[in-house]
Protein backbone atom coordinates (compact mmCIF):
# COMPACT_ATOMS: atom_id res chain seq x y z
CA UNK A 1 0.00 0.00 0.00
CA UNK A 2 1.55 3.30 -0.99
CA UNK A 3 1.51 6.66 0.79
CA UNK A 4 -1.56 7.99 -1.00
CA UNK A 5 -3.69 5.03 -0.17
CA UNK A 6 -2.47 4.96 3.45
CA UNK A 7 -3.51 8.59 3.76
CA UNK A 8 -6.89 7.82 2.20
CA UNK A 9 -7.47 4.99 4.63
CA UNK A 10 -6.26 7.01 7.59
CA UNK A 11 -8.66 9.81 6.68
CA UNK A 12 -11.50 7.39 6.36
CA UNK A 13 -10.83 5.63 9.64
CA UNK A 14 -10.07 8.83 11.55
CA UNK A 15 -13.10 10.92 10.67
CA UNK A 16 -15.49 8.43 9.21
CA UNK A 17 -17.91 6.89 11.65
CA UNK A 18 -19.71 3.61 11.64
CA UNK A 19 -20.90 3.65 8.06
CA UNK A 20 -17.34 3.80 6.78
CA UNK A 21 -15.77 1.01 8.76
CA UNK A 22 -16.33 -1.37 5.88
CA UNK A 23 -15.07 1.17 3.42
CA UNK A 24 -11.83 1.41 5.34
CA UNK A 25 -11.39 -2.32 5.08
CA UNK A 26 -12.52 -2.63 1.50
CA UNK A 27 -10.86 0.33 -0.15
CA UNK A 28 -7.91 -0.47 -2.33
CA UNK A 29 -5.72 1.85 -4.30
CA UNK A 30 -7.45 0.69 -7.46
CA UNK A 31 -10.77 1.93 -6.13
CA UNK A 32 -9.86 5.06 -4.23
CA UNK A 33 -8.34 7.50 -6.66
CA UNK A 34 -10.75 6.78 -9.46
CA UNK A 35 -10.64 10.37 -10.62
CA UNK A 36 -6.93 10.02 -11.16
CA UNK A 37 -7.15 7.02 -13.46
CA UNK A 38 -10.33 7.97 -15.30
CA UNK A 39 -9.52 9.46 -18.70
CA UNK A 40 -11.55 12.39 -20.02
CA UNK A 41 -12.47 12.06 -23.68
CA UNK A 42 -11.88 15.26 -25.61
CA UNK A 43 -11.05 16.63 -29.01
CA UNK A 44 -9.07 19.82 -29.38
CA UNK A 45 -9.09 22.55 -32.01
CA UNK A 46 -6.92 25.67 -31.57
CA UNK A 47 -7.48 26.66 -27.95
CA UNK A 48 -10.81 25.01 -27.31
CA UNK A 49 -11.77 21.50 -26.41
CA UNK A 50 -14.97 19.64 -26.90
CA UNK A 51 -15.49 17.44 -23.89
CA UNK A 52 -18.13 14.77 -23.39
CA UNK A 53 -19.96 15.53 -20.14
CA UNK A 54 -21.94 12.39 -19.40
CA UNK A 55 -23.10 12.07 -23.00
CA UNK A 56 -23.43 15.77 -23.92
CA UNK A 57 -20.58 17.46 -25.77
CA UNK A 58 -19.62 20.94 -24.54
CA UNK A 59 -16.92 23.44 -25.43
CA UNK A 60 -14.26 24.20 -22.82
CA UNK A 61 -11.37 26.67 -22.97
CA UNK A 62 -8.15 25.98 -21.11
CA UNK A 63 -5.66 28.32 -19.47
CA UNK A 64 -2.66 26.61 -21.02
CA UNK A 65 -3.79 27.86 -24.45
CA UNK A 66 -3.52 31.47 -23.23
CA UNK A 67 0.05 31.90 -22.00
CA UNK A 68 1.16 35.24 -20.47
CA UNK A 69 2.68 36.51 -23.73
CA UNK A 70 -0.62 35.97 -25.54
CA UNK A 71 -2.51 37.84 -22.80
CA UNK A 72 -0.11 40.77 -23.01
CA UNK A 73 -0.47 40.87 -26.79
CA UNK A 74 -4.29 40.64 -26.66
CA UNK A 75 -4.64 43.54 -24.20
CA UNK A 76 -1.62 45.63 -25.20
CA UNK A 77 -3.83 48.61 -26.13
CA UNK A 78 -6.30 48.25 -23.26
CA UNK A 79 -6.83 49.76 -19.85
CA UNK A 80 -8.78 47.31 -17.70
CA UNK A 81 -10.94 49.29 -15.26
CA UNK A 82 -12.15 47.07 -12.42
CA UNK A 83 -15.13 48.74 -10.71
CA UNK A 84 -15.52 47.66 -7.08
CA UNK A 85 -13.03 46.12 -4.69
CA UNK A 86 -15.26 43.53 -3.03
CA UNK A 87 -14.27 39.83 -3.12
CA UNK A 88 -14.44 39.57 -6.93
CA UNK A 89 -13.06 43.02 -7.72
CA UNK A 90 -10.13 42.44 -5.40
CA UNK A 91 -9.32 38.90 -6.55
CA UNK A 92 -9.62 39.66 -10.25
CA UNK A 93 -7.76 43.01 -10.07
CA UNK A 94 -4.83 41.53 -8.12
CA UNK A 95 -4.57 38.62 -10.56
CA UNK A 96 -4.63 41.01 -13.54
CA UNK A 97 -1.93 43.10 -11.88
CA UNK A 98 0.24 40.02 -11.26
CA UNK A 99 -0.30 39.08 -14.91
CA UNK A 100 1.31 42.45 -15.75
CA UNK A 101 -1.74 43.84 -17.53
CA UNK A 102 -2.62 47.52 -17.47
CA UNK A 103 -5.27 47.47 -14.74
CA UNK A 104 -6.82 50.23 -12.67
CA UNK A 105 -9.41 50.06 -9.86
CA UNK A 106 -12.50 52.25 -9.55
CA UNK A 107 -14.08 52.52 -6.10
CA UNK A 108 -16.00 54.90 -3.92
CA UNK A 109 -14.17 56.15 -0.85
CA UNK A 110 -14.68 53.92 2.19
CA UNK A 111 -13.94 50.31 3.12
CA UNK A 112 -13.11 49.08 -0.40
CA UNK A 113 -10.98 52.11 -1.22
CA UNK A 114 -9.00 51.72 2.01
CA UNK A 115 -8.46 48.01 1.35
CA UNK A 116 -7.22 48.77 -2.15
CA UNK A 117 -4.75 51.35 -0.82
CA UNK A 118 -3.55 48.85 1.80
CA UNK A 119 -2.92 46.35 -1.01
CA UNK A 120 -0.75 48.66 -3.03
CA UNK A 121 -3.15 50.49 -5.35
CA UNK A 122 -2.13 54.13 -5.58
CA UNK A 123 -4.74 56.90 -5.71
CA UNK A 124 -4.36 58.95 -8.89
CA UNK A 125 -2.13 56.29 -10.48
CA UNK A 126 -4.13 53.09 -10.61
CA UNK A 127 -6.94 53.77 -8.09
CA UNK A 128 -9.69 56.23 -8.98
CA UNK A 129 -13.24 57.24 -8.20
CA UNK A 130 -15.67 55.15 -10.26
CA UNK A 131 -16.40 57.75 -12.95
CA UNK A 132 -12.73 58.51 -13.50
CA UNK A 133 -11.91 54.82 -13.83
CA UNK A 134 -14.76 54.44 -16.36
CA UNK A 135 -13.37 57.37 -18.31
CA UNK A 136 -9.86 55.91 -18.44
CA UNK A 137 -10.88 52.28 -19.03
CA UNK A 138 -11.32 50.64 -22.42
CA UNK A 139 -12.64 47.46 -20.79
CA UNK A 140 -15.04 48.35 -17.98
CA UNK A 141 -15.18 45.41 -15.59
CA UNK A 142 -18.32 45.95 -13.57
CA UNK A 143 -17.67 44.14 -10.30
CA UNK A 144 -19.78 46.37 -8.11
CA UNK A 145 -22.39 44.57 -6.06
CA UNK A 146 -25.38 43.61 -8.22
CA UNK A 147 -27.57 46.21 -6.48
CA UNK A 148 -24.92 48.92 -7.04
CA UNK A 149 -24.63 48.00 -10.74
CA UNK A 150 -28.27 48.94 -11.09
CA UNK A 151 -28.09 52.00 -8.84
CA UNK A 152 -25.02 53.46 -10.58
CA UNK A 153 -25.98 52.52 -14.13
CA UNK A 154 -26.91 56.05 -15.20
CA UNK A 155 -23.53 57.25 -13.88
CA UNK A 156 -21.53 54.57 -15.70
CA UNK A 157 -23.41 54.45 -19.01
CA UNK A 158 -22.15 57.77 -20.48
CA UNK A 159 -18.58 56.38 -20.35
CA UNK A 160 -19.47 53.28 -22.39
CA UNK A 161 -18.54 54.79 -25.72
CA UNK A 162 -18.10 53.06 -29.06
CA UNK A 163 -15.21 50.60 -29.14
CA UNK A 164 -15.17 49.93 -25.40
CA UNK A 165 -16.02 46.60 -23.80
CA UNK A 166 -18.37 46.06 -20.87
CA UNK A 167 -17.56 43.05 -18.69
CA UNK A 168 -19.58 41.37 -15.93
CA UNK A 169 -19.11 38.38 -13.64
CA UNK A 170 -22.83 37.76 -13.38
CA UNK A 171 -25.65 37.90 -15.95
CA UNK A 172 -27.94 39.48 -13.35
CA UNK A 173 -27.91 43.16 -14.42
CA UNK A 174 -28.30 42.60 -18.16
CA UNK A 175 -30.70 39.66 -18.16
CA UNK A 176 -33.13 41.27 -15.71
CA UNK A 177 -32.86 44.69 -17.37
CA UNK A 178 -36.57 45.42 -16.84
CA UNK A 179 -35.83 45.48 -13.13
CA UNK A 180 -32.22 46.70 -13.06
CA UNK A 181 -32.44 49.28 -15.88
CA UNK A 182 -29.08 48.04 -17.23
CA UNK A 183 -29.32 48.12 -21.05
CA UNK A 184 -25.87 48.33 -22.65
CA UNK A 185 -25.35 50.62 -25.67
CA UNK A 186 -25.61 48.68 -28.94
CA UNK A 187 -22.15 49.66 -30.22
CA UNK A 188 -19.97 47.98 -27.57
CA UNK A 189 -18.94 44.41 -26.84
CA UNK A 190 -20.59 42.95 -23.74
CA UNK A 191 -18.95 39.89 -22.22
CA UNK A 192 -19.06 37.79 -19.07
CA UNK A 193 -16.61 35.72 -17.08
CA UNK A 194 -18.14 34.24 -13.94
CA UNK A 195 -15.70 32.43 -11.67
CA UNK A 196 -17.40 29.48 -9.96
CA UNK A 197 -16.51 30.57 -6.46
CA UNK A 198 -15.81 33.55 -4.27
CA UNK A 199 -13.21 36.16 -5.16
CA UNK A 200 -11.12 34.94 -2.25
CA UNK A 201 -10.79 31.56 -3.96
CA UNK A 202 -10.12 33.23 -7.32
CA UNK A 203 -7.10 34.85 -5.67
CA UNK A 204 -5.88 31.96 -3.52
CA UNK A 205 -5.96 29.41 -6.35
CA UNK A 206 -4.13 31.85 -8.63
CA UNK A 207 -1.42 32.26 -5.99
CA UNK A 208 -1.11 28.46 -5.83
CA UNK A 209 -0.56 28.42 -9.59
CA UNK A 210 -3.96 26.89 -10.21
CA UNK A 211 -7.10 28.33 -11.78
CA UNK A 212 -10.70 28.30 -10.64
CA UNK A 213 -13.39 27.02 -13.01
CA UNK A 214 -15.47 29.73 -14.68
CA UNK A 215 -18.20 30.40 -17.21
CA UNK A 216 -17.72 32.57 -20.28
CA UNK A 217 -20.40 34.23 -22.39
CA UNK A 218 -20.89 36.92 -25.00
CA UNK A 219 -23.98 39.14 -24.97
CA UNK A 220 -22.98 41.54 -27.76
CA UNK A 221 -20.18 41.06 -30.28
CA UNK A 222 -19.61 44.29 -32.16
CA UNK A 223 -15.88 43.90 -32.72
CA UNK A 224 -16.08 40.34 -33.98
CA UNK A 225 -13.48 39.45 -31.35
CA UNK A 226 -15.67 39.42 -28.25
CA UNK A 227 -15.42 35.67 -27.62
CA UNK A 228 -11.66 35.52 -28.03
CA UNK A 229 -11.17 38.53 -25.76
CA UNK A 230 -13.62 37.19 -23.18
CA UNK A 231 -11.74 33.90 -22.93
CA UNK A 232 -8.37 35.65 -22.73
CA UNK A 233 -9.71 37.95 -20.03
CA UNK A 234 -11.13 34.96 -18.16
CA UNK A 235 -7.68 33.40 -18.07
CA UNK A 236 -6.10 36.74 -17.12
CA UNK A 237 -8.39 37.13 -14.08
CA UNK A 238 -7.45 33.69 -12.85
CA UNK A 239 -9.66 30.95 -14.26
CA UNK A 240 -8.23 27.60 -15.31
CA UNK A 241 -11.06 26.15 -17.38
CA UNK A 242 -13.85 28.21 -18.93
CA UNK A 243 -17.17 26.62 -19.83
CA UNK A 244 -19.32 28.25 -22.52
CA UNK A 245 -22.68 29.60 -21.46
CA UNK A 246 -25.05 32.51 -22.08
CA UNK A 247 -25.81 35.45 -19.79
CA UNK A 248 -29.27 34.04 -19.18
CA UNK A 249 -28.18 30.48 -18.41
CA UNK A 250 -25.44 31.77 -16.12
CA UNK A 251 -27.70 33.92 -13.99
CA UNK A 252 -30.56 31.42 -13.86
CA UNK A 253 -28.31 28.57 -12.75
CA UNK A 254 -26.41 30.74 -10.28
CA UNK A 255 -29.48 32.20 -8.52
CA UNK A 256 -31.09 28.76 -8.52
CA UNK A 257 -28.04 26.92 -7.20
CA UNK A 258 -27.25 29.26 -4.33
CA UNK A 259 -30.87 29.27 -3.18
CA UNK A 260 -30.94 25.51 -3.59
CA UNK A 261 -28.38 22.88 -2.67
CA UNK A 262 -25.43 25.23 -2.30
CA UNK A 263 -26.88 27.27 0.56
CA UNK A 264 -30.66 27.49 1.02
CA UNK A 265 -31.69 23.85 0.70
CA UNK A 266 -28.70 22.52 2.58
CA UNK A 267 -29.35 24.72 5.62
CA UNK A 268 -33.00 23.65 5.54
CA UNK A 269 -32.08 19.95 5.39
CA UNK A 270 -29.43 20.24 8.09
CA UNK A 271 -31.85 21.99 10.47
CA UNK A 272 -34.72 19.58 9.77
CA UNK A 273 -32.54 16.52 10.41
CA UNK A 274 -31.02 18.08 13.54
CA UNK A 275 -34.41 19.04 14.99
CA UNK A 276 -35.76 15.52 14.66
CA UNK A 277 -32.68 14.04 16.34
CA UNK A 278 -32.99 16.52 19.22
CA UNK A 279 -36.73 15.93 19.60
CA UNK A 280 -35.97 12.19 19.82
CA UNK A 281 -33.60 12.69 22.73
CA UNK A 282 -30.17 12.85 21.06
CA UNK A 283 -27.59 15.23 22.53
CA UNK A 284 -26.59 18.37 20.64
CA UNK A 285 -23.12 16.96 19.92
CA UNK A 286 -24.52 13.69 18.59
CA UNK A 287 -27.11 15.50 16.48
CA UNK A 288 -24.49 17.87 15.08
CA UNK A 289 -21.96 15.13 14.38
CA UNK A 290 -24.52 12.98 12.55
CA UNK A 291 -25.80 15.93 10.54
CA UNK A 292 -23.05 18.40 9.73
CA UNK A 293 -19.65 17.26 10.95
CA UNK A 294 -19.62 13.88 9.27
CA UNK A 295 -20.99 15.42 6.09
CA UNK A 296 -18.52 18.25 5.74
CA UNK A 297 -15.42 16.58 7.20
CA UNK A 298 -15.69 13.11 5.78
CA UNK A 299 -18.34 12.42 3.18
CA UNK A 300 -18.58 15.61 1.09
CA UNK A 301 -14.85 15.79 0.36
CA UNK A 302 -15.00 12.15 -0.76
CA UNK A 303 -18.05 12.84 -2.94
CA UNK A 304 -16.16 15.81 -4.36
CA UNK A 305 -13.16 13.67 -5.15
CA UNK A 306 -14.91 10.56 -6.43
CA UNK A 307 -18.62 11.12 -6.97
CA UNK A 308 -21.72 9.89 -5.15
CA UNK A 309 -21.68 6.65 -7.14
CA UNK A 310 -18.29 5.83 -5.62
CA UNK A 311 -19.58 6.77 -2.16
CA UNK A 312 -22.55 4.44 -2.46
CA UNK A 313 -20.33 1.67 -3.78
CA UNK A 314 -17.80 2.04 -0.98
CA UNK A 315 -19.76 2.44 2.25
CA UNK A 316 -20.96 -0.22 4.64
CA UNK A 317 -23.75 -2.43 3.35
CA UNK A 318 -26.00 -1.04 6.09
CA UNK A 319 -25.44 2.59 5.09
CA UNK A 320 -25.69 1.60 1.44
CA UNK A 321 -29.10 -0.09 1.87
CA UNK A 322 -30.52 2.89 3.75
CA UNK A 323 -29.23 5.51 1.33
CA UNK A 324 -30.49 3.55 -1.68
CA UNK A 325 -33.93 3.21 -0.10
CA UNK A 326 -34.29 6.84 1.03
CA UNK A 327 -32.72 9.11 -1.61
CA UNK A 328 -35.68 8.83 -3.97
CA UNK A 329 -38.10 9.80 -1.24
CA UNK A 330 -36.09 12.98 -0.52
CA UNK A 331 -35.92 13.61 -4.26
CA UNK A 332 -39.67 13.29 -4.70
CA UNK A 333 -40.60 15.62 -1.85
CA UNK A 334 -38.03 18.27 -2.73
CA UNK A 335 -38.42 18.37 -6.52
CA UNK A 336 -41.62 20.46 -6.46
CA UNK A 337 -39.80 23.01 -4.27
CA UNK A 338 -36.95 23.14 -6.80
CA UNK A 339 -39.50 23.64 -9.62
CA UNK A 340 -41.05 26.51 -7.66
CA UNK A 341 -37.60 27.99 -7.04
CA UNK A 342 -36.59 27.84 -10.72
CA UNK A 343 -39.83 29.53 -11.71
CA UNK A 344 -39.23 32.25 -9.14
CA UNK A 345 -35.78 32.83 -10.66
CA UNK A 346 -37.03 32.75 -14.26
CA UNK A 347 -39.93 35.15 -13.73
CA UNK A 348 -37.66 37.69 -12.01
CA UNK A 349 -39.17 37.42 -8.53
CA UNK A 350 -35.79 36.55 -6.99
CA UNK A 351 -34.11 39.49 -8.73
CA UNK A 352 -36.76 41.98 -7.66
CA UNK A 353 -36.62 40.73 -4.10
CA UNK A 354 -32.84 40.94 -4.00
CA UNK A 355 -32.78 44.48 -5.46
CA UNK A 356 -35.56 45.65 -3.17
CA UNK A 357 -34.18 44.16 0.05
CA UNK A 358 -30.55 45.03 -0.66
CA UNK A 359 -31.25 48.67 -1.37
CA UNK A 360 -33.30 49.45 1.76
CA UNK A 361 -31.70 51.98 4.11
CA UNK A 362 -31.98 49.52 7.04
CA UNK A 363 -30.56 46.66 4.92
CA UNK A 364 -27.51 46.04 7.15
CA UNK A 365 -29.41 45.97 10.46
CA UNK A 366 -32.15 43.71 9.07
CA UNK A 367 -29.55 41.37 7.57
CA UNK A 368 -27.73 41.18 10.87
CA UNK A 369 -30.95 40.13 12.62
CA UNK A 370 -31.50 37.31 10.11
CA UNK A 371 -27.90 36.13 10.31
CA UNK A 372 -28.05 36.22 14.11
CA UNK A 373 -31.07 33.94 14.04
CA UNK A 374 -28.99 31.32 12.21
CA UNK A 375 -25.92 31.87 14.39
CA UNK A 376 -28.04 31.56 17.55
CA UNK A 377 -29.61 28.27 16.48
CA UNK A 378 -28.51 25.53 18.83
CA UNK A 379 -27.15 23.46 15.94
CA UNK A 380 -24.59 26.06 14.88
CA UNK A 381 -23.72 26.86 18.51
CA UNK A 382 -23.10 23.15 19.07
CA UNK A 383 -21.02 23.22 15.89
CA UNK A 384 -18.64 25.77 17.38
CA UNK A 385 -17.86 23.40 20.26
CA UNK A 386 -17.49 20.40 17.93
CA UNK A 387 -15.10 22.29 15.66
CA UNK A 388 -12.90 23.16 18.62
CA UNK A 389 -12.43 19.45 19.23
CA UNK A 390 -11.09 18.75 15.76
CA UNK A 391 -7.53 17.43 15.98
CA UNK A 392 -6.11 20.47 14.20
CA UNK A 393 -7.72 22.80 16.77
CA UNK A 394 -6.50 21.00 19.86
CA UNK A 395 -3.27 22.37 21.29
CA UNK A 396 -0.66 19.72 21.96
CA UNK A 397 0.17 19.49 25.68
N1 LIG B 1 -19.01 36.59 -4.48
C1 LIG B 1 -19.07 35.59 -5.36
O1 LIG B 1 -18.98 34.42 -5.00
C2 LIG B 1 -19.23 35.88 -6.83
C3 LIG B 1 -18.88 34.88 -7.72
C4 LIG B 1 -18.99 35.13 -9.05
C5 LIG B 1 -19.47 36.35 -9.46
N2 LIG B 1 -19.84 37.33 -8.59
C6 LIG B 1 -20.34 38.62 -9.08
O2 LIG B 1 -19.27 39.56 -9.02
C7 LIG B 1 -19.80 40.87 -8.79
C8 LIG B 1 -19.16 41.44 -7.54
O3 LIG B 1 -19.40 40.57 -6.45
P1 LIG B 1 -18.76 40.75 -5.03
O4 LIG B 1 -19.11 39.57 -4.22
O5 LIG B 1 -17.33 41.14 -5.15
O6 LIG B 1 -19.64 42.04 -4.59
P2 LIG B 1 -19.93 42.80 -3.25
O7 LIG B 1 -19.06 42.36 -2.17
O8 LIG B 1 -21.37 42.68 -3.03
O9 LIG B 1 -19.57 44.35 -3.64
C9 LIG B 1 -18.52 44.74 -4.45
C10 LIG B 1 -18.23 46.23 -4.40
O10 LIG B 1 -19.41 47.03 -4.63
C11 LIG B 1 -19.19 48.27 -3.97
N3 LIG B 1 -20.44 48.98 -3.79
C12 LIG B 1 -21.58 48.54 -3.22
N4 LIG B 1 -22.54 49.50 -3.25
C13 LIG B 1 -21.95 50.58 -3.83
C14 LIG B 1 -22.41 51.88 -4.17
N5 LIG B 1 -23.65 52.26 -3.91
N6 LIG B 1 -21.54 52.73 -4.76
C15 LIG B 1 -20.28 52.35 -5.04
N7 LIG B 1 -19.79 51.14 -4.78
C16 LIG B 1 -20.61 50.26 -4.17
C17 LIG B 1 -18.56 47.86 -2.67
O11 LIG B 1 -17.88 48.98 -2.14
P3 LIG B 1 -17.94 49.38 -0.56
O12 LIG B 1 -16.92 48.53 0.14
O13 LIG B 1 -17.60 50.82 -0.57
O14 LIG B 1 -19.35 49.11 -0.09
C18 LIG B 1 -17.60 46.75 -3.11
O15 LIG B 1 -16.36 47.30 -3.48
C19 LIG B 1 -21.33 40.68 -8.67
O16 LIG B 1 -21.89 40.87 -9.94
C20 LIG B 1 -21.46 39.24 -8.26
O17 LIG B 1 -22.70 38.67 -8.58
C21 LIG B 1 -19.70 37.12 -7.27
Explain this structure.
The structure is a single chain. With 397 residues, this protein is of the alpha/beta class. It has 21 helices and eleven strands. It has an eleven-stranded mixed β-sheet, sandwiched between helices. α4 crosses α13, α5 packs parallel to α12 and α16 packs across α21. The protein binds NADP nicotinamide-adenine-dinucleotide phosphate. The site of NADP nicotinamide-adenine-dinucleotide phosphate has 25 residues, from α5, α6, α8 and β9.
Structural class: alpha/beta
Number of discrete helical segments: 21
Q: Rough shape?
A: globular
Largest sheet: 11 strands, mixed
Strand order of the largest sheet: 1-2-3-11-10-9-8-7-4-5-6
Instruction: Please report the total strand number as a whole number.
Output: 11
Query: How much helix is in the residues?
Result: 55-70%
What do the pLDDT scores average to? 88
Strand content: 5-15%
| Unique bound compounds | NADP nicotinamide-adenine-dinucleotide phosphate
Return Rg in Å.
Answer: 24 Å
Distance between the termini: 32 Å
Give the low-confidence spans: 1-40
Amino acid sequence: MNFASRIALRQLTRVAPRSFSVLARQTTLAQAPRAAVCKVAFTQTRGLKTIDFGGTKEVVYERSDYPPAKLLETFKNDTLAVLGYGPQGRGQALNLRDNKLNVIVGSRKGASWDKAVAEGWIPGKNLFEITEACDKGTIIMNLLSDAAQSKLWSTIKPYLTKGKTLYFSHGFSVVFSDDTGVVPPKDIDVILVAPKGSGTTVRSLFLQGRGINGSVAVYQDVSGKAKERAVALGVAVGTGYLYETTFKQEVYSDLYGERGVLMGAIQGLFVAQYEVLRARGHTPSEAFNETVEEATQSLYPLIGANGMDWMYANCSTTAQRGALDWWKKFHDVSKPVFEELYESVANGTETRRSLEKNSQPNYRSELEKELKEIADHEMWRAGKAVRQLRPENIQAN
